[in-house]
Amino acid sequence: MTKILTVKQIKALDEYTIQHEPIASIELMERACRAFTTWFTERFHALNKVGIVCGTGNNGGDGLGIARQLKAWGYPVKVWVVRGNMKESDDFKENFKRLAGYVVDLVNISSEADKGLFVECDVLIDAIFGSGLSRKPEGIYAQVIQCFNQATATKIAVDIPSGLMADQKSEEPIARVTYTLTFQLPKLAFLLPQSQQYIGEWTVLDIGLSKKFIKEVDTTNYLLTQKDIKRLIKPRSKFDHKGTFGHALLISGSFGKMGAAILSAKAALRSGVGLLTTHVPQCGYSIMQSSVPEAMAQVDDDDNRFTAYSNLESYNALGIGPGIGTHETSVKAFISVLKSFAKPVVIDADGLNILSAHSNKYEVVPPGSILTPHVKEFKRLVGEWSDDFERLEKQKELALQLRSVVLVKGAHSTVATPEGKLYFNGTGNPGMATGGTGDVLTGILTALLAQGYTAEDAARIGVYVHGFAGDLAASDKGMISLIASDLIEYLPAAFKLLSR
Ligand SMILES: NC(=O)C1=CN([C@@H]2O[C@H](COP(=O)(O)OP(=O)(O)OC[C@H]3O[C@@H](n4cnc5c(N)ncnc54)[C@H](O)[C@@H]3O)[C@@H](O)[C@H]2O)[C@@H](O)CC1
Ligand SMILES: [K+]
Fold first, then answer.
1. Which one of the ligands is nearest to 180 CA?
2. Residue among 474, 480, 478, 20 at smallest CA distance from 494
3. What is the pTM of this model?
């Protein structure tokens, strides 16, 4: 897994590398600059006029080193150093010396002409603040960032856009860039929706910081990688039979919303469940039997909705919520089925809405379950939050209270565990913002729970494979035309690529 470290840990990682590799700090900076210019020269022709705006800390030092290297590559480079109250770091000073003569110092931006300072640049590099930012930029720093944002050049941030805090709430002004090239590990802020407007497309550059330190350092935040998911998916053996892969029950659908039931059932079957029973109202019986012949159908007493259930003993996992509605008879049956089913449950959609309105939600959810709210559903469950960092705290708190996994869906869906871990997902695309994709996820997760995966593992595999199927589908069909059924169509390819 890719660990997400705090700013303090990143600093310690730099220091550990300097001490134990060992490598001189200025050499490590040179390596960071080299990683940056390698990426840069592969993408931008040497005819581009490059502007580099530097602070006077180590991020600024990087900017100066990058300027020197790009000059050597033949790029026309102009460098500005913002002179405010920030101290000069030793490596900044050294790189300043090495670049002597090419620097324009900025002490003030007063005239209108100054505001158009960067107009001549085709590419602008932001090296004002890096991970050392400790408060909101003010004075000359704020002016330069505003000026930077007004320029029309392609913009690239060194390590992190200036003004953006890596692991806490930030305040404007913040540089808005097209690309962020970050060193060694992604920063927590990159994974949050509120930062997307600043960071653009981000790339991690390996600068050889200590692998040993990264392996040993404690963190609760991770970015899921394909390698992790491959390790988690259990291989099948010759003597396995359908009983090995569990029996799942899906309670979903109502009159007018049988599509949700079909999508979750098909997704469960494509996710390896041994046996699947779907509980449907009478109006959904023929629809389910003819659309999903592999699933058994258990029929409700009611024509149109979920109102009652029968013996639950044979099921290893339950998925409930897609399309069930919030009619009071369904609410009653929902609470009652949760109370009687002691094994893990996936709760989605209307299930979550019912839970939000229920006064005793902490008592009805069986421990080890998975809740899959999108942002609006999550707000209904826990109330408003002022920024995404607070949302993450609320998510961890709910997971702890319910002793279950809380999976908040969106770009970089996040999985919170009762132990306080956060896993961020990197698969998926905006094409998946279409009706029914959540129902597909419910089916996948229910199938994984039925196969004996823990809630934590099921959520990690499920969220990754769901996005991965979406990415495969989008690469063939494009994002605009993508529909939820496409995810099901591409699940086999996704699982195949993720299996050992
Ligand atoms: N050897 C290393 O430690 C390496 C560091 N690297 C670079 O170094 C950066 C971190 O360097 P620094 O820790 O010097 O951090 P910065 O370059 O972000 O500068 C922080 C400095 O600005 C001051 N400051 C913070 N907020 C301010 C504000 N709002 N207004 C005015 N001053 C403010 C701080 O007190 C500190 O002196 C990374 O982002 C990365 O770019 C890379 O060169 C890789 C190696
Ligand atoms: K920066």
1. 2
2. 474
3. 0.95
Domains of the chain: 2-219 (3.40.50.10260), 226-498 (3.40.1190.20)
In the chain, the amino acid numbered 64 is L
Q: How would you list the strands of the sheet with 103-106, edge to edge? A: 103-106, 77-82, 50-54, 123-127, 154-158, 179-183, 201-205
Ligand 2 centre and the CA of 390: distance in Å? Answer: 24
378 phi/psi in degrees, rounded to 5: -65, -40
State the Cα–Cα distance between residues 21 and 216, nearest whole angstrom. Answer: 16
Atom of ligand 1 nearest to the CA of 127: 41
Is 159 known as a binding-site position? Answer: yes
Q: What ipTM was estimated for this complex?
A: 0.98
Which ligand 1 atom sits closest to the C-alpha of 131?
Answer: 39
Ligand 1 pocket check for 252: Cβ under 6 Å = no
- Burial (CB < 10 A; 0-12, 13-18, 19+), residue 175, is buried
The string of pLDDT tens digits covering residues 104-125 is 887 777 766 677 889 999 999 9
64-104 per-position pLDDT tens digit? 999 999 999 999 999 999 999 999 999 999 999 999 877 88
Q: Which atom of ligand 1 is nearest to the CA of 25?
A: 1
Q: Is 55 in the pocket of ligand 1 (CB under 6 A)?
A: yes
